[in-house]
Amino acid sequence: MEIRSTFYVKPKSSPEREDFNGRLALKNAAPLWNVLGTIVPREPQTRTVPAIWRYDELRPLLMEAGRLITAEEAERRVVILENPGLRGESRITQSLYAGLQLILPGEVARTHRHTAAALRLVIEGQGAYTAVDGERTTMHPGDFILTPSWAYHDHGNPGNTPVVWMDGLDIPIVNMFDSGFAEHHPDTMQPVSKDEGDSQSRYGSNLLPIEYTPQRKSSPLFAYPYARSRETLDRLHRGGPLHPSHGIKLQFANPATGGYPMPTIGAFLQFLPRGFRGLPYRSTDATVFHVIEGCGNSQVGKTSLSWQARDIFVVPSWNAVTHEATEDVVLFSFSDRPVQKALGLWRELEGATT
Ligand code: GTQ
Fold first, then answer.
1. Cα separation of 315 and 44, whole Å?
2. Residue 120: which CATH number?
3. Which residue's alpha carbon is at the smallest distance from atom 6 of ligand 1?
4. For residue 297, what are the contacts with CB-CB under 8 A and spacing of at least 6?
5. Nearest to residue 104, comparing CAs of 137, 138, 145, 62?
6. Ligand 1 atom nearest to CA at 182
7. Segment 37-55, tens digit of pLDDT
8. What is the extent of the structural domain holding 129?
9. How much distance in Å is there from the Cα of 92 to the middle of ligand 1?
10. Residue 31 lies in a domain
């Protein structure tokens, strides 16, 4: 580790000190002075590295998975996106999991629930649904869909095209606390008890049921349709102004609280007009980006990532990111920002200074 990155310099070793450390080890103990600079860093020292998953490269493999295993056998047919710095850990950042889920025509992914919360960002295909709390939501590309912690959910594809979406879950956070539970629903497909659009009309029209009290910590709105958010981005772009780093950037909101859609995951949508060259920005929430439209390039720390529609890339904690758009671009992103803010840990910095 570079000296610059630690506020504390490890003391020199000596035979006497090594001998002492050895005797500590026998008692399941260790000297703080050898690890202090690592466990209490001067600034975030992450194993998460800047990385990109190109959809064109992964799609054929996902379709191959479709021939290799059924959704029924797999429970969820998902290719996990693993950060190259965190291989084997089923995570895309230190705190978040991401994957690509495929559901073929005629398939169902049976009803279950777990303490981990999930988001979906639909990538391709038409006609599949996710059901939560007795309500089915039809998925369209770009739609942002929630599956709150401990909510029964099943997916199905009654249409005639393969449907793929990105899953984002807080699995590493839940497992850090060793608080994971999961169970099946007795029914493969949960009973449908509400009309499609029920949560949209109850909570998604700038109205709430009178004296509404939130029933859970997540948004009561299960789906944020892309058509509506895209129109909003378009209007804001015409109205300006553009943020020097983010372009037009919005956060998805829980309409009952104004807060984040889920207690553990924040989600964002941004528009970068063709020719946009942003200024550097850094924050402590490692962020997963998904390109909904357009193509461009992001400088992430020392790494340059060029991306196009449907790709997914990661900006690790405290890495300066600079976005450039070669076409009109729409980026979806998600991070653990709500957790960091709840704990008073979140920081951001505009500018490239290290
Ligand atoms: O759709 O319920 O990517 O339970 C990982 C675990 C998706 C899901 C994942 C899951 C799901």
1. 13
2. 2.60.120.10
3. 76
4. 304, 305, 306, 307, 323, 324, 326
5. 62
6. 4
7. 999 999 999 999 999 999 9
8. 51-350
9. 14
10. no
Per-residue confidence at 240, pLDDT binned at 50, 70, 90? confident
d(CA 13, CA 20) in angstroms, rounded, equals 11
Is 100 inside a domain boundary? Answer: yes
136 lines ligand 1 (CB under 6 A): no
Q: What single letter denotes the amino acid at residue 121?
A: L
Q: Is the pLDDT of residue 3 over 70?
A: no
- CA-nearest residue for atom 1, ligand 1, is 76
Concatenating the DSSP letter of every residue in 135-155 gives EEEE--TT-EEEE-TT--EEE
Q: What single-letter DSSP state applies at residue 86?
A: G
Task: Give the residue, by CA position, lying nearest to ligand 1 atom 11.
Answer: 76
pTM higher than 0.85, yes or no? yes
State the DSSP string of 150-195. T--EEEE--SSS-EEEEEEE-HHHHHHTT---EEE-SSSSPPP-S-
Residue recorded with tokens 């992103």: 333
CA distances from 90 to 19, 70, 122, 179 (A): 38, 21, 21, 17
Is 310 near ligand 1, meaning CB less than 6 Å away? no
The response to whether residue 170 sits with its C-beta less than 6 Å from ligand 1 reads no
Domains contained in the chain, number? 1
Which pair of structure tokens corresponds to residue 142?
A: 């770009």
Q: How far apart are CA 353 and CA 93, in angstroms?
A: 23
Q: Does the beta carbon of 78 lie inside 6 Å of ligand 1?
A: yes
pLDDT the model gives residue 228: 97
Does 22 map to a domain? Answer: no
Q: How many A from CA of 155 to the centre of ligand 1? A: 10
Distance (angstroms) between ligand 1 centre and the Cα of 21 equals 44
Report if residue 313 sits inside a domain: yes
Q: pLDDT tens-digit profile of 281-323?
A: 999 999 999 999 999 999 999 999 999 999 999 999 999 999 9
> Position 248: which residue type?
I
Distance 76 CA to ligand 1 centre (A): 6
Q: Are 284 and 335 in contact (CB under 8 A)?
A: no
Rounded to the nearest 10 degrees, how much is the dihedral formed by the CA atoms of 225, 228, 229, 235?
Answer: 170
